[in-house]
UniProtKB/TrEMBL annotation:
One of its GO terms (molecular function) is zinc ion binding. The keyword Metal-binding applies. Transmembrane segments: none annotated. One of its GO terms (cellular component) is transcription factor TFIIH holo complex. It is found in: Nucleus. It comes from the Eukaryota. InterPro entries: MAT1/Tfb3, MAT1_centre, Znf_RING, Znf_RING/FYVE/PHD, Znf_RING_CS. Residues 115-186 form a coiled coil. Keywords: Coiled coil, Metal-binding, Nucleus, Zinc, Zinc-finger. SUPFAM superfamilies: RING/U-box (SSF57850). It comes from Menopon gallinae (poultry shaft louse). This is CDK-activating kinase assembly factor MAT1. Residues 6-49 form the RING-type domain.
Amino acid sequence: MDDQVCPRCKTTKYRNPSLKLMVNVCGHALCESCVDLLFLKGSGACPDCGVALRRSNFRVQLFEDPLVEKEVDIRKRVLKDFNKKEEDFASLAEYNNYLEEVETIIFNLTNNIDVIETNKRIEQYKKENKDIILKNKNKIGKEEYELEEILEEEKIQEETRKKLLAQEEKEEKEKKLKAKEALIDELIFSLTLMPRPLSVLLLRQ
């Protein structure tokens, strides 16, 4: 993610290696410095979409694609309440319909489709299912556990990829430097074998 750039102040990872991009519920990124500046009072509006945001909800961006980042955040929030298990349904068909509804909700919120209606559906669901939601929150949910595992694995893979790229770049630079030094050494050695007047003439050129 060396090509990271803050969309507000335009600071890049190249110019500032310690640059950290932060994201909130809307999925739009800002560097840590811009977050501190814009949300000094604890809350403010996203400069990109205008959504009201809290400073405490900003977190370090893990994925290069902001839409993926937004979907992951929404999925985590939705699954905290839509936490029913297969055993909570009378049939597999009912469970599959429930899972399909959850995916529709996540898709709508991620892509800003019928957001108001979708949030109403969520609130209605929470009212109608508050007892089972609370019961399932008291035990580790399989979906949440698997999601945390996936996120952790993605984070490890991203860090490994960055380290490998940095190592490859370092090795490539060292290789070019050695080749240049070898070429210079070879040229100097060749000049020492030439008759003096000719070598002096070449050096002057």
